[in-house]
Amino acid sequence: MENRWLLSPSRRLTEAERKLVWKKPITHIESEAERRICSEVKRNWERGEMKITNILLEGDAGSGKTQLAKALSADFGLPYTKVTCFADMDKSDVLGAILPVLSEDGGEDGNKDGNVEYRYYPSEIVRAYENGWLLEIQEPTVIRDAAVLMALNSALEPDGSINLPTRIVHRHPDFIAIITTNRGYNGCRPLNEALRDRVQHTEKMDLPPVEVMIERAAAKTGCHDLDVLRTFAQTIVLLDQTAKANAIKGVAGMRSYFFWVDAVLQGADTIESLYHKVIYKITTDPAEIILLEQALSQQELLAALEDVARHRGGESDGDVLELRADGTFETELSTPDTNTPLAVALRKSPDSEGHSTRSSETTTATQSKDTGEDGTPMYHDLQPEDQAKLEEEKRTFRKHLNQQAREAVKGSAHEKVGMIVHRPEATPAHREEYQQIVSTLMPVIRELTRKTEPLLEHEVSLEFSPNRVYGTRFHAEKVASPDYRHFSKKQPPTEEPSLAVALRIDQSASMNAFGRLEAAKQAAVAVYEFCESCGIPVLIYGDTADRSPKEKMSLYSYIDWEERGLNDKYALMAIQSISNNRDGMALRILAEKLAKAPQMTKLLISLSDGQPKAMPDYTGSAAMDDMKQVIRDYSRQGILFLAAAIGQDKETICEIYGQDRFIDITDLGQLPARLVQMIAKYL
User: Fold this and answer.
1) Are the CB atoms for 487 and 470 separated by under 8 Å?
2) In which residue ranges is the amino acid composition biased (Polar residues) (predicted)?
3) Rg (CA), the chain
4) 76: which strand partners?
5) Is the previous residue joined to 616 through a cis bond, with omega within 30 degrees of 0?
6) What angle do CA 470, 473, 476 make, to 5 degrees?
7) Nearest CA to 96 among 129, 121, 133?
8) b/e per residue 424-435 (b: at least 16 CB within 10 A)
């Protein structure tokens, strides 16, 4: 059958090039994305500046990006090659390198009497670029040196060229670049804007529809039991969605699906192979596995899989699927109350009575990290002059925060809303309450910190590493040296986990119901202690609206990274439910503070039990649209939003933030550990 997508029918490939053209196996199923790309490229192939030669495939692992790139090689009739990027990649890996080579008449004694030549060896990128091949550039987002990506920019121009040490190479008219990259994985960075702009066609690679998954699995594995294939496909889809919704970094993809089906087809136990082929590829963390098991159980897919196992003649081990409630973070944090009624909608009135959190004028002590023999904290009195100086610093900082917050909302719908930023202070009762909570949470925090510490290790190196056989900088003074180490190679930039976290806590009146306020306090303590132990800059703010006719918006700054010496962690126990909530304004203020932080990754977690509502008309679609606009505006500036929903309006919160930014906290006992786990995943 004639290939209708062939781009250059008159071109004659060499024998070596013909071997590089991918051959589609009989199990290959043509996808909609493949047909769409082929159609677009073929339609524009002879249109000069409108020619499509740079394509981006972005999606999760196992979504078929590399398979699609290879299929395009077969469709277009072009030799296929690839380059896999890595963190320490530099320009020599893009352009090629000049290496020393001993001449053939160097003699038996090696380089003692032989003549040394320097020869240029082109990279795979240059070979594909010059000869007109289809090149897959895998994972350019992991490259730490921005200059390397910039080297690709000019090459990807329609009439681009590459300056080599020996000559200038111009782009072959048949050269096609396929950039394949994952979404938001550890070590990945946002794709360079200039590079992304040079892409003429992009495909968002997700799991295909269930029917397509079934068709591909049948072709790959030879399994034709449609009920089994459909049940397995639905399981894969649900696990993938659950992992994303709970910030679990693993992925359930097509590879997992194929190998699971094949294992069962060869006689493996359905349930046991589910763990080894799918679940353990997503995560091996016990708490996260329980979340996946619960999702399968709630959707009745566990029962369906057990039916499959019975029908195939194998009984599954019921113990494997037992939901392990004991020994997990959830039960360590709190014991679920089976008598707790379901959440109900609470009406928030504009005249809800609030309780002001005033700074104590009689406080004469400051906390110390020292503790007594019984574990209770010890306090030391300050001298009067030191106390006066401390109070002045607090007033100055509070004034600064008020000015900063008002500046953040200028030009927005909240510009004229009366607002005050408070800095609550702790009482002895708050200190006792904090110690009780932290004593319960510390085993969890220490364990997560222990797992995180390896991610925080880094090495500081010089800009260039000298005495290299090849590299990017030639040192003439080294030519006399007999070891041929005449080059230096640029070291990658210092790599430090760069994360800043902001936790926003909804202090509306409905937070007082069903233990939500206590859960919020526990979450705040867990986030603070974990970030402190890992050296992560953290903001913890609360907010409420309509506290008084003049104070329409109230912000409570509990922890702020600008003046860490003025933070009082025990003040987190002053979190209380007050009145309404003006979510969009609080998000804008915290997002603006995050945007100015120097860290690479900036995470804003919103902890809320309900949808926005404030007087006189901040409610319904208008309030939701305001929040969505804030999320859009600051997402473009690199802010990552996560909404932890703990109340009755979860569907509305999910609609506002989007499924990928939404975490459903059904069991409040899970909240502290879940938030800390999510933060750890962004390191």
Assistant:
1) yes
2) 359-369
3) 30
4) none
5) yes
6) 90
7) 121
8) bbbeeebbebbe
Closest CA to 147 of 198, 96, 97, 90: 90
Q: Which residues contact 637 (CB under 8 A, 6 or more apart)?
A: 591, 595
- What local confidence, expressed as pLDDT, does residue 477 receive? 55
As given in the structure block, the two tokens for residue 530 are 């974990």
Average pLDDT, the chain: 79
The pLDDT-based confidence of 683 (bands split at 50, 70, 90) is low
Torsion sign across C-alpha atoms 634, 635, 637, 638: positive
Q: How far apart are CA 517 and CA 576, in angstroms?
A: 7
DSSP 208: P
Strands (E), 320-475: 365-371, 377-381, 419-422, 464-468, 473-474
pLDDT in tens, 513-568: 888 888 889 889 988 988 888 888 999 999 999 988 889 999 999 999 998 889 99
| Model confidence pLDDT, tens digit, residues 349-373 | 333 333 333 333 333 333 434 444 4
Residue 115 vs residue 293, higher pLDDT: 293
| Predicted structure pTM score | 0.53
Range with lowest mean pLDDT among 174-188, 347-361, 511-525, 646-660 = 347-361
Instruction: Check: CB of residue 226 under 8 Å from CB of residue 214.
Output: yes
> Exposed e or buried b for every residue in 316-331, given b needs 16+ CB within 10 A?
beeeebeeeeeebbbe
| Beta strands 116-121 and 97-102, pairing class | antiparallel
Helix ranges, 377-424 (H):
384-408
Q: Side-chain half-sphere of 341: how many Cα atoms within 13 Å?
A: 4
To the nearest 10°, report the CA torsion of 109, 111, 117, 122: 100
Lookup: tokens for 276: 């080894």
452-487 tens-digit pLDDT: 665 554 433 335 555 555 555 555 556 556 555 656
Cβ atoms of 284 and 315 closer than 8 Å? no
**pLDDT category of residue 496 using cuts at 50, 70 and 90:** very low
Q: How confident is the model at residue 502 (pLDDT cuts 50, 70, 90)?
A: very high
Kindly report each contact of residues 482-489 with a partner whose C-beta sits within 8 Å and lies 24 or more positions away, as own/partner.
Answer: 482/111, 484/100, 484/111, 484/116, 486/100, 488/464, 489/90, 489/92, 489/464, 489/465
| Lowest mean pLDDT, pick from 121-135, 488-502, 610-624 | 488-502
User: Residue 107 has which token pair?
Assistant: 């003699």
Percentage of the chain surpassing pLDDT 90? 33
Calculated CA dihedral for residues 248, 253, 257, 263, nearest 10 degrees:
-70
What gap in Å lies between CA 309 and CA 218, rounded to an integer? 19
Print burial letters for 123-151: b (CB count within 10 Å at least 16), e (below 16). bbbbbbbbbbbbbbbbbbbbbbbeebbeb
pLDDT of residue 103: 61
Quote the CA–CA distance of 137 and 69 in Å, as a whole number. 10
Among candidate residues 278, 275, 273, 271, the one with its CA nearest the CA of residue 263: 273
Pair of tokens at residue 545: 């609206």
Query: What is the Cα–Cα distance from 553 to 560, expressed in whole angstroms?
Result: 19
Q: What pLDDT shows up at residue 486?
A: 58
Q: What is the 3-state secondary structure (H, E, C) of 107-134?
A: CCCCCCCCCEEEEEECCHHHHHHHHCCE
- List Cβ neighbours of 338 (8 Å cut-off, separation of 6 or more): none
